Amino acid sequence: MTESILIIDDNEDILEFLSVVLKDSYTLHLAADGEIAQSILDKEIIHLIISDIMMPGIDGLELCKLIKSNVEYCHIPVILLTSRNTHQAHIEGLEVGADAYIQKPFSTELLQIQIANLLTNRRKIKEHFASSPFEDVRIMAHSKTDEAFLKKLDEYISNNIKDPNIDIDMLAGHMFMSRTTLYRKIKFLSSLSPKELIDLTRLKKAATLIACNEFSLYEISKMVGYSSQSLFSRNFSKYFKMSPNEYANSLPRE
């Protein structure tokens, strides 16, 4: 999937310039002000935001602060563009949670490298979480708001892990979010669907139980909510690149 970038600037020339620079690598959404940007955020999956600071209405600093304090969007990296060449301006950008701060006029190469680095780092974190049996879900948090969201989500799945029927509706009700918003949030943070995240949480718990060496694999599959041991084994192999038996045999035993 091509990653999507939301560009916010009241200057049409800047919007057009950035569109030319980035259109071959990303799916672009353009907004002339903060209000239009918010409507796009409500409808689209956005992977990164580039925003000018000086805009009428909601300026870039205020918009960044709103984004970083809202559980629905706070995971999205924000690059702020400004013509203000002062340390205080830079500090203000960091204080509202900006992930990068670039002064105008800027090098297009610098901007492209900043974008690529932010997106690549997030991609690596997701891949590491999905392939590591003992990695905590909160490794994917990019803010305190994200951390609280993931902790609450993980606790609910863990507390109900024996139930084979946990689904997105149950998660959405617990998190007080719509299905669409919850799906979009989980998908961005983990690159997983809610169902895949539930499965992975089950399998990480199974890996912990296997390491304890107290239960049979059949017992463990039931304890983590699988009605079929063959499905349990298939999913375990899919994520961790080895079967439950191979994993058990790879662990040091006293």
TrEMBL record:
It comes from the Bacteria. The modification 4-aspartylphosphate is found at D52. Residues 4-119 form the Response regulatory domain. Residues 151-250 form the HTH araC/xylS-type domain. PROSITE patterns: HTH_ARAC_FAMILY_2 (PS01124), RESPONSE_REGULATORY (PS50110). This is Response regulator. It comes from Chitinophaga filiformis (Myxococcus filiformis). Coiled coil: none annotated. The keyword Transcription applies. Keywords: DNA-binding, Phosphoprotein, Transcription, Transcription regulation.
